[in-house]
């Protein structure tokens, strides 16, 4: 499988990666839309040479709400959980 380590992105590579990681989605309007979107997103394997998270903003989900959908590589969630359990 190989060993993966932190890789610092700079300048243009960082800008490209951030544009892929922070996304605005105006197409989601209902709870069912969210469910369908998340079901499709979880099937997409993100490349390991990029950022290991994605944040999708859904502005104006309703008259009074906006939605943030966050997708993280399991290693980030595992690390946060370990820190919470051992602190």
What does this protein structure show overall?
The protein has one domain (11-86). It has helices at 11-21, 31-41, 74-86; strands spanning 22-24, 53-58, 67-72. The longest helix has 13 residues, at 74-86. It has 87 residues and is an alpha+beta fold. The chain is globular and about 45 Å long. The protein has a three-stranded mixed sheet. It contains three helices and three strands.
How many individual β-strands? 3
Beta content comes to 15-25%
Q: Helix proportion of residues, in percent?
A: 40-55%
How many distinct helices? 3
Structural class: alpha+beta
Alpha carbon gyration radius: 16 Å
Report the uncertain regions. none
What is the count of structural domains? 1
Biggest β-sheet, characterized?
A: 3 strands, mixed
Mean pLDDT: 87
Order of helices and strands: HEHEEH
Give the N-to-C terminal Cα separation: 31 Å
Q: Output the strand order for the largest sheet.
A: 1-2-3
The coarse silhouette is: globular
List the helices and strands and how they pair.
Elements: H1 11-21, E1 22-24, H2 31-41, E2 53-58, E3 67-72, H3 74-86
């Amino acid at each position: 499988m190989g060993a993966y380590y932190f890789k610092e992105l700079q300048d243009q590579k960082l800008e490209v990666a951030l544009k892929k990681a922070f996304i605005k989605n105006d197409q989601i309007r209902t709870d069912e839309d969210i469910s369908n979107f998340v079901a499709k997103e979880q099937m997409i394997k993100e490349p390991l040479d990029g950022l290991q998270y994605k944040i999708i903003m859904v502005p104006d989900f309703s008259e009074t709400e906006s939605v943030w959908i966050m997708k993280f590589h399991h290693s980030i969630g595992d690390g946060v959980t370990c820190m919470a359990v051992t602190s």
